[in-house]
Amino acid sequence: MPAQEPPASGGGHEELSAAVVSLTTENATLRERLTRRHLTDLATGILVTQLEASPAEAAEHLVLLAEATGLSAEDLAADIVNGAAGTIAVTSPTPPVGDEGAVAEARRIRRVATAAEANDTVSEAAATLLQGGMSPLGVESLWLWRLTESDCLRLAGHAGVSAGEATRWQWIPPAAPAPFQQVVTEGSPVWLASGPPPDVALPGPGPEAARALLPLRLRGSTVGLALAVWPGRADLDESVRRALTDVIEVAARVLNATDAEPSQSPLLDDLVDALAHPAMTLRRDPATSTLSVEHLNGPASEALGGTHRTGQPLEVALPRHHSDLALLSQRAHSGTSLQRAARLPTEHGAGSPAPLLDVRVLPVGAERTLVLWHTSSDRRLSATRAVGQLQGVAPFEDDLTRGTSKWSEQAYGILGIDRESEPIPLTALRLRVHPEDRDDLTELLMTLTERRKGAVAVVRVIREDGGMRHVRIAAEPLMDEGALTGITGITGITGVYQDVSTGFHTEVALTATFDQLTAVQAQATLRHRLVLQLQQAIVPEMPALQRLPGLQATARYRPAAQEYRVGGDWYDVVPLPSGKVLVAVGDIAGHGIDAATGMVALRNALRGLAFTGHTPGRLMEWLNDVTVNTQGHPTATAVCALYDPADRTLCWASAGHLPLLLIRDGRARLLDPPGNILLGAVPSFVYQERTTQLLPGDTLLLYTDGLIERRHDGLDEGLATLLRAAEKLSSLEVEEQADRLLSGATGDTDDDTSLIAVRVCPER
């Protein structure tokens, strides 16, 4: 009796899929309506200026003009905007003969540009430009970089590009390949119909793929760079160049409208600027884990040679220090709030920036780090700094016998007294001191006059203008031995007033900020620990070696290097009632709570669906429907395989996952996966299957990308390294083979990693 399909939940997965399709269609309709509204608003604004009319009158005129010309309001609006922009304009419902195609194309380009401007993110705008304006030209992918203040190019958005490739080209330093430099410095496009020169590496599918690099200019300045990539060679004639230039023109405005995010803590930046020693803040990119310089105070910029380094990756801004600082940052975020290093680096050549001494690293939230240090050339550490501390210091001397006082000029400003007024003796200062600090002043006076000892106190002085200053009073008693009695008495008080308001407020603000950051960090640490516990509970460690029907299987899981990168990797090896064995691995995109909970849903769903007895392709179709309807709309890659010990066949389906690796007779090779898409990408997708005949002694590896991905290499290099390692370890038992592969993994993206190794039992 054939196994039945799983019962539908609620209205069934068909109804859920239909609901998702309906919502997607509704969203597209709303987006199209917003685009039309944006285009008509632009045209209305132009008419306001041209007709010197009110917005309401201009809108009414647009409607009447559309009726008179027989054009739709959208087409007429496109013509008006094109006319104002200096492109094709239409003044009558019947364009001149031969211009119909040009007019229609101009309208289409304007609609695409307007739709891009209505998008919320640069990547959404890039997708709109690619699909609506560039795909008809044969373009396969689009990259948009923003030019930073440090002349670096930072990837702001992309379309038709894989996540791994986008990570590799996230930052382009000023010393970039020649085509990038030419576009940025000269402001002119570069057309590469048959690819770049052999010694120049650019994003794209191959060295011969056509590329076009175009400057993104706004108000006469270059604000970024666009790269269009074709799948192969292309004829970039004048018509293609003109059309591409027209489409890409809007990208500069999109970059400007969605400028880089401001600092999330302006207070901290202000406090860093107030420090006398070098300090900077670093930001970690959650997608790539790379550190970049977010803010430098004046002493830090001076210590690093005066070069503007804000916005640069840490390895570019501080090439001699980045590895040590990255390690200190990692340790600080792992729970040690303050790290110190004696010197970074130890060598210090002539003409190079001074070394970093007594480095202090403080975590600021989940993605920011505060770094403080001193340098051997910092003059503030010497007598110059000591003299500088005397700013805001005013000597005074009180005559207790006469009840008078002498002040220096600075004292009037510190205490807020008019310079024409008589100086106030310390003993009469009580009424100008904040009520809460008067006891401290009394204690100071008692120590001076009764105990006849020097003393120091900090009190708040209320100035005549209503302001308040924190003033440190350091004083000593003046003693005089009487000529007749021989008894020593106190005749006066000498000392200094010092305005410590700036330092006091900075200290208080830093303390409050650090206390707040410590609380945030404690909450984040607890959150991360709960995520790890959840992940470990859902993906428990497999026993060292599990014997299944016809197989030996072992699995390994390695969590991410940083807790905040807890991911969505999972694996499962389950014997089924049919006698077959389910072997599966998967990886949900993203990190944190959402990824971990999404992983739970998919892993449990696949395990339950597998007991229906259906094929891997059908199981993946159901799992795709589950993913599409999961809250948060995640996407995931996965491999689902069923091993039949009766004939040693492996039937498997892959959803955009890395290829399975087969080791046979000491040689390793990758199994070509069927061309299926990610889970969660589109509803109701039909997943194709492969059937592989296994032999006794064969070993099969299923793994996630944390095993092979490297920041600066492509997947091909990582897979080639894995093949070589697997062949070297082919003679080992399956347990040791898994341990050695995981410990020697080449991946360096700090991502979590899952690995399953199964070996077909030899014939008896």
Structure summary:
The protein is of the alpha+beta class.
State the end-to-end CA separation: 33 Å
What value does the average pLDDT take?
75
Judged by helices, strands and strand pairing, the structural class is: alpha+beta
Quote the beta fraction: 15-25%
Give the total of beta strands: 27
Provide a count of the helices. 20
Q: Tell me the Rg in angstroms.
A: 35 Å
Unreliable spans: 1-13, 88-98, 259-265, 336-343, 345-351, 377-390, 482-487
Helix content: 25-40%
Shape: extended
Major sheet summary line: 6 strands, antiparallel
- How is the largest sheet built, in terms of strand order? 3-2-1-6-5-4
Protein architecture, described:
This protein is of the alpha+beta class and 764 residues long. Helices cover 37% and strands 24% of the residues. The chain has 20 helices and 27 strands. A six-stranded antiparallel β-sheet has the order 3-2-1-6-5-4, with helices on both faces. A hairpin with a 6-residue loop joins strand 15 and strand 16 (488-499). The two termini are 33 Å apart. The model is unreliable at 1-13, 88-98, 259-265, 336-343, 345-351, 377-390 and 482-487 (pLDDT under 50).
